[in-house]
Prior knowledge:
Blueprint: H1 12-28, E1 35-38, H2 42-48, H3 56-69, E2 74-77
Parallel strand pairs: 1-2
Amino acid sequence: MLVVGTPHVPEPGEVRAGAFVGGIAGKLMDVPDPAVVVYRSDAEYHAANPAAEFPTRWLRMVVIRVALEVPALSIAYADQVVRTEAP
Length: 87
């Protein structure tokens, strides 16, 4: 709860989410067809990103915030993406 007249001190998770959103949004702004992948489960997410510190739910919420900053952002579940090898 925020009490009027008291300064809001962001939680560490809020600060990290904001930094993540800013970093990803900044990288996607110059991409012609910006797209991100999200995962259906924590197991799927952590299998693809073993170093991930947060649950899939956190990632999906952050991606929604990125979508507010990046026009025409496409969001797809990992199992909907056709993977190709980089040249």
